[in-house]
Design goal:
eight-stranded mixed β-sheet; single chain; ten-stranded mixed β-sheet; 5 helices; globular; alpha+beta
């Protein structure tokens, strides 16, 4: 099963206008958006769909207050949809839609959809760095940052789910859909990647009571840590609230910056995630701040160096 990763996340929200404003400010492009909501996409076409929670076109809600309605996964080819349908129809209802996509529930009741991926191929440079002892990546007179530099989400990176039973969730995605465990935070849960994606993770579980079941956060890949810092700073200046970061995780090595959102979950910029293949051996560490972050900064107002004390001033 060549599952690539999430194409879309679908939310049923209380405040459609507020969510539309938020996602646009975050750097996603509105596509056919009306006062009823619509699609907000990254540079490769993945993204977020929002509708009012009462919209009849939405899948049914979880039995919690969480606003996530559906995770839409992209696969490489039609044959992958056939394989997923054949596997999951062994013990549950699988609905084949007119466009060939399929809908189904996982073992915790999360609504899933699988489709041939809509991702557009990106051809963009990564962030360039110059370091002593290595060839310069930027040419002479090529600057690394400027006030109006682009810093937009490139692709939907991953989703983190609150689930009451880690073993049940992991068994479904690994045994039934071919996901691979890359690392484990004991007391929280495993990082998972699908077979057709070499990112450290596109899915992570956190064990919580049943009443918290839902989406904890979703994340978007940026072109590098500088883009992450620039986009996050611009977002804060627009009045949105930082939740955690900026910083850098240990497992996955990705830079992060999380923000509160009207989607009922956190939304993250990430950058520079590790890549893995089947030779990787999963690590395990106790969940906590020491295992989660190797670097964490604090957001503060701008500061600039000034001159020394005026003549005659006393210390």
């Amino acid at each position: 099963m060549n599952i690539i990763g999430p194409d879309y996340l679908v939310f049923g929200v209380d405040d459609v206008a507020g969510c539309c404003e938020y996602l646009t400010a975050f750097g996603l492009k509105p596509v056919d958006v009306t006062d009823k909501g619509g699609l907000f996409e990254t540079l490769d076409g993945t993204g977020v769909i929002v509708r009012h929670k009462s919209d009849p076109s939405l899948p049914p809600p979880l039995p919690t207050a969480n606003m996530l309605r559906q995770q839409v996964y992209g696969v490489r080819a039609r044959q992958d949809l056939d394989a997923i349908e054949a596997e999951l129809s062994k013990d549950r209802r699988v609905t084949r839609l007119s466009d060939g996509s399929i809908e189904v529930k996982d073992d915790h009741g999360f609504e899933l959809k699988f489709q041939v991926s809509i991702r557009r191929v990106l051809d963009m440079p990564a962030e360039k760095i110059n370091a002593p002892g290595a060839p310069a990546q930027r040419k002479p007179n090529e600057i690394g940052v400027w006030e109006e530099m682009p810093a937009l989400p490139r692709t939907l990176s991953h989703v983190v789910l609150f689930v009451p039973d880690i073993e049940i969730a992991t068994k479904f995605y690994c045994d039934r859909l071919g996901f691979v465990i890359t690392d484990i935070l004991t007391g929280a849960g495993p990082f998972l990647r699908p077979k057709a994606n070499d990112d450290h993770h596109t899915l992570f579980f956190i064990r919580t009571p049943d009443y918290m079941k839902g989406c904890e956060h979703l994340a978007f890949h940026m072109g590098g840590p500088t883009e992450l810092m620039v986009a996050g700073t611009r977002f804060v200046k627009k009045g949105y609230q930082s939740f955690w970061g900026p910083g850098r995780h240990k497992f996955g090595s990705n830079w992060f910056w999380y923000f509160n959102s009207p989607l009922g979950c956190h939304v993250e910029y990430d950058a520079d995630m590790d890549k893995h293949d089947d030779n990787w051996v999963a690590r395990e560490a106790p969940n906590g701040a020491e295992a989660s972050q190797i670097v964490l900064f604090e957001m503060r107002e701008k500061w600039a160096p000034g001159g020394g004390p005026p003549p005659g001033a006393k210390g």
